Amino acid sequence: MLKKPTYIIALMLSTLCLASFNSAYASAVYSINLKKKLNGTKIYAETSKINAPGSLTVLKLSNFDSREVDCKASFNPRIEQEKSYKRRLQANTNISIRYTTSRTPNRLNIKLVCRAVDEIPAKKD
User: Fold this and answer.
1) Segment 52-95, tens digit of pLDDT
2) Does 74 fall in a domain?
3) How many domains are contained in the chain?
């Protein structure tokens, strides 16, 4: 009689381990390398991955500076073409940039360059 509950618990534990192992392989597991060049601005950048078909990465930017800031984020998954986004952040605001690839990359490189608007050189004619 005592062997049946032990057997059932062992079976349930092995099933649980197998289910968690399969779900780990089903989710998008890749590393994100974020290189920042902030040029004296007070920008906080954070990345997060969302489980979706392909891969969806969200880059959250927060401007803690009292100035307007222009940011350029370049996403390079190394399996598709590099894509860049430009955003202007007002003082004390947050934005999100969503980047999607059709296939899950092994590594995603993100290059973030930010400058204060008053420090951007004017174009020469």
Assistant:
1) 666 889 999 999 999 999 999 999 998 889 999 999 999 999 99
2) yes
3) 1
Q: Helix or strand or coil: residue 26?
A: helix
pLDDT at 28 over 70: no
Residue 51 forms part of a structural domain: yes
Q: Does residue 14 fall inside a structural domain?
A: no
Between 28 and 14, the more confident residue is 14
**8: exposed, middle or buried (C-beta count within 10 Å: 0-12, 13-18, 19+)?**
exposed
Provide the CATH number for the domain around residue 82: 2.60.40.3230
Nearest residue to 54 via CA among 96, 95, 108, 18: 108
Domain assignment present for residue 19? The answer is no
**Parallel, antiparallel, or unpaired: how do β-strands 43-50 and 31-37 relate?**
unpaired
Q: What is the largest CA-CA distance in the chain?
A: 91
